[in-house]
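Per reviewer request, we include the raw input and output of the structure prediction for the construct analysed in the revised manuscript.
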Amino acid sequence: MTATLLHHRWAQLDLARQMESLPFIRQFMEVSAKAGYNGILLYLEDRVRTACYPWAKDGECFTPEEIRGLVEYGQGLGLELVPCVATLGHAERFLAHPELVHLSELQGDMKGRFGGTMKQTFCPTHPQFYPFLLQYLKEVAELFPSPYFHAGLDEFWDYCLCPRCREKAPDLASQEALFVEHVEKVRQGLEKCGKTMMMWSDMFEYYPKAQEKISRKVVLVDWQYQEDVRRYVHHLFDVFSEDRQGLNQRLGFTNFVAPADMTYRNGQSLLECVQGRGAEGFIQTSWEKRDTYIYHSLPIFAFNARLAAGKGPEEATGEMMEQLFGTRDALLTRGVTLGLTLPRGRHFQKLSRDFLLTRDFRGLPLALNEGYAAAALLLRERGGLVTTEMGSRILVDLQETLEEELAAARLKALLHHALDGHPLERAEWDEAVKALKGLLDRRCDHWREWREGVEGEEAFRRQCAEILEGVERLGGEANCPHCVRLRICAPDGYTIETLSVRLQYQEKGPWHQVFQGGVKAHDLNHALAEIFLPYQPAQEGRPVAVKVEAWGMGGEGVCHVLVDGMAPRAILQVEGMVQNPEHLLVDNVNFAWFGSQSTQEAYFQQPMAQMVHGVTLAL
């Protein structure tokens, strides 16, 4: 591939979800500058205390003086610091303050599009919204000399739900117009501060006509986080794909591209995908480190900076290893890149109950687990060659990240052996739980060492304790004689569907809840998955019927259900929209589809999203 040189090369740090200390931020800036970045995007949300926003507590925000100090430090490294304040969605930190909660789209116990009541989206029609927002943006903008200001605008899911917004924007066209109006008000406010507005582009997937109408002075940032980017793929709505680069060029927009630190090759493939197609900037993003660490992601940052500066993958990898680890040893390099290419769970995801109880239809990912083991072995065997302090810390973080993956795989293998009808290998289970406890204890110790002086240590320790308690509880349920086994099919992986399973012990008797939650394969490349639901009987006797229900956006395919090994023998009742319910009676991968297959259709029609679709089966 021909190398691509982008003028703007920025590294992004998410400070909204996890405060970091000033020494850490300066260290991150030093690493980024040495890697070849020329800018830092600080994702802030509400993390800067200003005159119009005085409510953030000490330790939960940065003062103007601290921000000015970071800006000055960045200038000394050749870095411009660019602020990002979300101006519509991702406003939960603002709206958590009683003084601002009236600016929320959701009021009282109103439910959002995903069924929750969390207040996380501003109301653009509230008469006090823009006076507050524009003043806050002005006060933050004054702290940053950069000509750019990122205004967020991704994922504002609860848009146009309140009565005032519904009156002003009752249909898609008027909602798009309100979106354009919001962008223009923010753009004009930032322009008065001497700033060029930037925004994420993903919500144009939902409101496509809005992109045609906004000012071409706005810089669009297109993000794609899959490992191998071949085209622009939508992020929720029915997973359309489109030529977004071509659209940006046709409409005359300046645009940046943004990968994430979830996999080593995401940035490389994204740069190859947009090569020669007008992208003017590159932002390496990293999100939500509240219960993980960014150290093991730094090789991805250092690698992608060099790619965006026009270097090839081999040269970029070698220079990354030299910078961070002080060696280009081939086997250590392979251990690092393999460990970062393999999928890694976020936020202890793979130690959660739903993940441990769910598996792909064709079994556990044994080859993937061998990959984790191989990467861990290479790091352990060649780690002695690391000569830098930063490299040693990266190595510890990456090794423990792989150790977490292997711990989850070990527990899952033991658990599913038992769920398949074999006795739980208790001694090995206890040993695996003990090893997990040791890992979690070390992670807690690292919090104190690596995040000294920032919020969250107590919550982190509490979360680790809850994870361990949950795993220990699963060990007690592994040989439970009562279990519902549910096979599902979610072809695009982006459905936002709630599934409910209830049992009945007597004809016309009460229904007893076994499960309610989201069910899908954990790998977006897979559609078919099975979830095991151990339960305690609500009364004596065996169940005579099972009811499977679903509601939400995108629908859910259900292939088969077994209750204590009993297959359904007949369909008793169908409600709502269920296609091919007869497939539930056969133990194969043909599925009954509950609800509409279009996420988009239900997104814009709340009654459809709330409609319950169900099948009652005799056992």
